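Worked Example 4.2. Consider the chain below.
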Amino acid sequence: MKHRAAIAIAALALTAFVLRFGIAVLFPQWTYASDMIVYQNWIEILRHVPVTDYYRTVSTQFIAPYPPLFLYVLKALGPFVGAVSRPDLVVKFPAMLADIGVGATIFFYGRHRWGSKKGFIAAAAFLFNPAVILVSAVWGQTDALYALPLLLAFLAASAGRPVAAAGLGVASALLKVQGAVFLPLLFTVIAIRDRKRLGRAALAAGAAAFIVLLPFLVSGRITDVLAVYTSHSVAKYPWVSVYAWNFWWPLAITSPTLYLPDTGTVFGVSFLSIGVLLFGAAYLAILAAVFFRRVSPLPAAAFLAFSFFMLPTEIHERYLFPTLVFLPMLFGMGRVFAVSFAALSATFAANLYFVLPFVSEPARLLARPETVPAWLLTNVGWIVNGVVFLALISHAVRTAHFCNGRVKSDHDV
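Applying the procedure from the previous section yields the following structure tokens:
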């Protein structure tokens, strides 16, 4: 049985990777060319300067708002980018590989919890998801790179491996700033599940960060890293929504350019502050549910990822990606999660189609009277996302997995 399962996941993973690579090779016109040029420019700079000098070599306007571990990945790609005729394929390779890693993780987890068949279906739902393929193989974005260690971190925490969980969580945060959003939740899980080894987990987190940041510490450039998590990321896109079909989207489309500043106010409170308060309230509710053992780690991580997409301002459409990573891990807990995954996959794919370059520039697309279907699509998208969000809240309140009984073991995940 194990041999057959290994063959099945190997075939699934190989097919999924060949599909991605084939799309990237055969349809270069679908690539977001400007983003590919930016990535290649970052790589070219890193071919000629140490990673520690990068943040001071590039002007603030064009600097990569990514932490050091991601820069190490870019630097490792340098020799390959300069040696091939299609550098975009090299840039896309790590994210496509990370997609496969997520799919394999879903399969093995699902096989352990629900059996090989359901694990296979859950993994296939992710690996052949059009939205996931659009992000990595078409656009060439790197959300899967931080989502994979993030998923593994919560699995490790659930399995009583706090040291591995802490190291993986820090790795996720050092790959992309969004990974840091999950750290308070991850360490809350570790604290309530294995309080005796919390100190070891903290040491592991510190050690992981120290190893990655050591060159910056030695060169006196650690403040450059801190800036990545503050000035280079916060308010970089100061609009209510950066094409994300979330609760702020109906406000965004009131602007002719779709770029409505989040400095606007309601009763003297800025949109930015309202978004922070909403997300902060959701985060506190999730932490409380985990602390009082009313919710297990994976549902908590899934809802946190979805809340981060739906509630704050300045959110990009791609920030829905981690939600699609965590939801397949919950298919065995109830149909609501599979239905939510299907609905969000559809809206995410449509959202990506709306912003990718093989359609017209979004603002012009919405502005033309003859494109009423586009306007209707974007409104249906945020409404569906909102309905799913509220449905999951309702499910959280009603089900014992979340509220009516204490979570006693990892089998409750």
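The chain is about 70% helix and 0% strand. The CA atoms of residues 156 and 243 lie 34 Å apart. Compare this with Example 4.1 before moving on.
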